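Project outcomes to date are best conveyed with an example. Our students and postdoctoral researchers have been running inverse folding experiments weekly, and each run begins with a structure described purely in tokens. The record below, which covers 259 residues, was selected by the lab manager from last quarter's runs and is presented without edits.
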């Protein structure tokens, strides 16, 4: 596990825990494709899906990298201060780290919040990302959080600046700054800027990310190299069909000449 310092005013203020592995054998004559995994809110880089994809990628001859967002796992920082902008800054630091390992262009593999972050990073830096492979990307996180809170609690959240959030993975305070930051990243702008070949994988029984929001993004994005696979009986995490997810990812990358 490597450590990347997060600087503030030129001094280390936090850090990211990063795990990078190169394959023992290459998938082809070119430098190995590097897959960067981005986990979801409250999750960590060594969760069940991440470890499955790490093993599958390395076995297939790709490099694989993962890290804990600030406020998660072995990284520093607090979850209370999380924003999309901070997540994007974390990905930027890890991209610089990977560029130093010879991977200036990477494949992003995101889950939930990590998928939403990955979509935005790709939109802002299309020259750095060769493809996106995203499971239940959180495209409407602001709407989802406000719906979870309800009108009255959302009002109190805004007034006090904090709300206590609980889901199946985490119990934490969240700052109102998260909502304010999401509002300067509207999905309409994301759609208009997006230019990366992408596979979206979504369950229709997902109770955390609306499958309709994912379909809407794929359907109305002006960029047309976006494939979508819906699982009629799939939940949010899709952990029970990891092997099928990997098969679809491999087919997608192969079809675009990336492997």
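After processing, the design step wrote out the following sequence:
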């Amino acid at each position: 596990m490597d450590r990347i310092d997060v600087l503030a005013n030129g001094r280390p203020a936090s850090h990211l825990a990063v795990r990078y592995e190169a394959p023992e054998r290459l998938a082809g004559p070119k430098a190995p494709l590097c897959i960067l995994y981005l986990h979801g809110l409250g999750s960590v880089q060594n969760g069940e899906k991440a470890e499955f994809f790490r093993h599958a990628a390395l076995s297939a001859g790709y490099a694989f990298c993962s890290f804990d967002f600030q406020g998660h796992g072995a990284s520093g920082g607090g979850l209370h201060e999380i924003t999309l902008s901070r997540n994007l800054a974390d990905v930027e630091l890890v991209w610089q780290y990977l560029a130093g390992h010879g991977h200036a262009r990477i494949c992003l593999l995101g889950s939930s919040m990590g998928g939403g972050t990955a979509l935005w990073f790709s939109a802002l830096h299309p020259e750095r990302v060769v493809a996106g492979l995203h499971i239940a990307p959180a495209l409407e996180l602001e709407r989802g959080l406000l719906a979870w809170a309800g009108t009255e609690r959302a009002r109190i959240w805004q007034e006090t600046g904090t709300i206590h959030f609980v889901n199946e993975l985490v119990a934490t305070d969240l700052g109102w700054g998260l909502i304010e930051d999401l509002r300067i990243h509207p999905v309409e702008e994301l759609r208009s800027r997006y230019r990366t070949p992408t596979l979206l994988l979504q369950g229709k029984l997902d109770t955390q990310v609306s499958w309709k929001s994912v379909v809407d993004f794929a359907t109305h994005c002006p960029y047309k190299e976006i494939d979508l696979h819906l699982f009629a009986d799939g939940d949010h995490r899709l952990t029970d069909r990891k092997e099928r997810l990997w098969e679809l990812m491999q087919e997608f990358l192969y079809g675009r000449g990336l492997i």
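The chain has one domain: 2-17+29-141+187-255. The CA atoms of residues 197 and 256 lie 8 Å apart. The training component of this project remains on track.
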